[in-house]
Design goal:
This protein has 117 residues and is mainly α. It is 95% helix and 0% strand. The protein has one domain.
C-alpha cells in the first residue's frame, strides 16, 4: 500500500471517528435535555399536588401557608434552573456542531489535497 493510500485511509478513519464522537456527544446532550425537562415536569406536578393538598388541609393555617410558599419558591427556582440548563445545552450543542463541522471540513480538504497531490 502506498503512502498516499495510507494517508487517505487514515483521514477516512479520522473523519469517521469525528462523526461518531459528534453523534455520541449530541445524543448525550439530547438525553440531558430530556432528563431536565422530565425533572422540571415532575417538580411542577409535585408542586401542583402540594397546592391541592394545602387547600384541602387548611389554606388559612400559618404553617400550611408557609409550606405552600416554600413549594412555590422551589417550583419557580427549578423552572428557572431547567430553563437556564436548557439554554446552556442548546449553546453547547451549537458550539459542538460548529466545531465538528469545521474539523470535518478541514479533514475533507486535507483528504482532497492528498487525493489530488
Amino acid at each position: 500500500m502506498s503512502d498516499r493510500e495510507e494517508q487517505l485511509l487514515a483521514l477516512d478513519r479520522q473523519i469517521r471517528d469525528r462523526e461518531s464522537r459528534t453523534a455520541e456527544d449530541l445524543a448525550t446532550i439530547r438525553v440531558l435535555s430530556e432528563q431536565w425537562a422530565s425533572y422540571a415536569h415532575v417538580m411542577r406536578v409535585h408542586s401542583e399536588r402540594f397546592e391541592e393538598a394545602g387547600v384541602r388541609l387548611d389554606a388559612k393555617n400559618y404553617f400550611v401557608q408557609k409550606g405552600l410558599a416554600a413549594s412555590r419558591e422551589l417550583d419557580a427556582y427549578v423552572s428557572r434552573l431547567a430553563g437556564d440548563h436548557a439554554e446552556l445545552l442548546d449553546e453547547t450543542e451549537r458550539s459542538l456542531r460548529s466545531a465538528s463541522e469545521a474539523e470535518l471540513e478541514r479533514l475533507r480538504r486535507e483528504k482532497a489535497d492528498v487525493s489530488w497531490g
